[in-house]
Known about the structure:
Layout: H1 2-10, E1 18-21, H2 37-45, H3 49-56, E2 59-61, E3 63-67, E4 75-79, H4 92-99, H5 113-119, E5 140-142, H6 145-158, E6 162-165, E7 168-173, E8 180-185, E9 190-192, E10 196-198, H7 205-210, E11 215-217, E12 226-233, E13 242-247, E14 250-256, E15 260-267, H8 274-283, E16 294-297, E17 301-303, E18 307-308, E19 311-313, E20 319-320, H9 328-341, H10 350-376, H11 383-390, H12 395-407, H13 420-429, H14 446-466, H15 470-478
Parallel strand pairs: 1-6, 3-13, 10-19
Antiparallel strand pairs: 2-5, 3-4, 7-8, 8-9, 11-17, 12-15, 12-16, 13-14, 14-15, 17-20, 18-19
Helix pairs in contact: 1-6, 1-9, 5-14, 9-10
Amino acid sequence: MAAAALSRFLAGSGRRIVLIESEAIGTVGVGEGTIPPILEFNHQLGLDEAEFVRATHATYKLGIEFAGWTHEGERYFHQFGVIGRPLNGIPFHQLWLKHRAHRSVGPLAAYSMSATAAAHHRFAHSAKDPDEPLSQIAYAFHFDAAAYGQYLRRFAERFGAERIEGRIVEVEQDGETGFVTALRLDDDRRVRGDLFIDCSGFRSLLLGQTLGVPFEDWTHWLPCDRAVTVASARTDPLLPYTRSTAHPAGWQWRIPLQHRTGNGHVYSSAHMSDEDARTVLLDTLDSEPIAEPRLLRFKAGRRSRSWEANVVAMGLSAGFLEPLESTSIHLIQHAVQKLLGLFPGAAISPVERDEFNRAMIASYEPIRDFIILHYLANGRTEPFWKQVREMAVPDSLAHKIALFREHGRVFRYNEELFDVPSWVAVMLGQSIVPSGYDPLVDALPDAEVLRAMAELRSGYEQTALRLPLASDYIERTLSGDQ
Ligand SMILES: Cc1cc2nc3c(=O)[nH]c(=O)nc-3n(C[C@H](O)[C@H](O)[C@H](O)COP(=O)(O)OP(=O)(O)OC[C@H]3O[C@@H](n4cnc5c(N)ncnc54)[C@H](O)[C@@H]3O)c2cc1C
């Protein structure tokens, strides 16, 4: 992603982009869920969506279904995009909070175009007319991250990036400044550079190992530290959403691609053995495994600075948050976009570097809080769930929850990724129910509100039923009929 964007936007500036990768080391080999801003990244690069869907075996994603996170057997949906429409400037969820007990109202998800289409396994692109329910559909992709990497590598090479296959065995630094000056490869080649983007994964070869930037550990809030993953056969109907199912010591993702289903069980090794985690995964697949399960180890947290000296870390080398809300690839995209916005001139400016670091911290922390939120209000009985229910949470999250508990109010601060509808869906989904609602709702006649709500709901439902099945829509995309 970094090489693609830098070569695309720096082509012609006289800078040379060199991409070093090692097939012997390989990539982490997971990462299949994305969120809607990926559309913006692909669009900036000028990628054709049909070609991208073909190259990455992508399917459309409308949100995430959470199963068993409050109690076994209970489900809720975190939709992409908005919920309902405001009335008199009042956010829709406030109307729902007041009237939710009325027999005609139903679940909050019934007022989301994305959630309603997902429930019917249907998909279509957004309508242009803002009055149409379909204008509110929002989507991202499930894709094969390795294929996306290959696709973007070819893209970067087309824009002049030079790709070198080789293993970095030594990092050379300037004796005075500590700046990285060159990388030595296993065949003794030496690659010199002015700015180094560390995309070396969990090793954090330049930022962590060479420059010694410390890792801020968040495992006391996010104790899951392992995942066992396996691909299984594709099943039909193809679901246009990710499923996340809670298990005794963690949770399991299910991500449908065109040619297979990606599955992974994320768990806390303090609460479950690797063998048991593997058994849970294999016992709960909904189709035959088509590969051997793989074990991955990780730690939640981030490097205290992403940009140090002339090294900018992105991806796993900068930090890791479990893939509960598919945010890692987004954080790479965000880092790439920020770096382009602050790209250094002949020398590195400390104030621009600090701005980059500030922006990255401001992005990681609210996402961390949003992920912790999923663990908090669970009603499960296992020791893992008891621990995460009782843990102290960051003040920023405690404030958000306390504010919501009063009158259901949520505000989006600064550079927060997740907007109000996401917080509302997950707070209510996790059974955090406010004691009241916005008193301004009382200024609206109940009958009028209920009528407007019923119209909205039926608009989403009728529209969803007219959409093609997601699997048919993908076929049409692949055959160029879309
Ligand atoms: C269990 C799990 C599930 C995930 N699910 C999601 C998800 O659903 N959605 C999402 O957005 N993200 C997800 N992620 C995160 C996502 O996988 C990563 O953000 C993404 O793949 C980028 O990884 P990376 O490039 O930082 O590291 P890697 O994929 O590890 O790549 C590191 C690269 O550096 C090279 N390298 C390393 N050392 C050297 C060396 N010495 N010499 C030369 N080259 C070297 C390697 O060859 C490789 O090309 C998940 C992560 C995990 C662990």
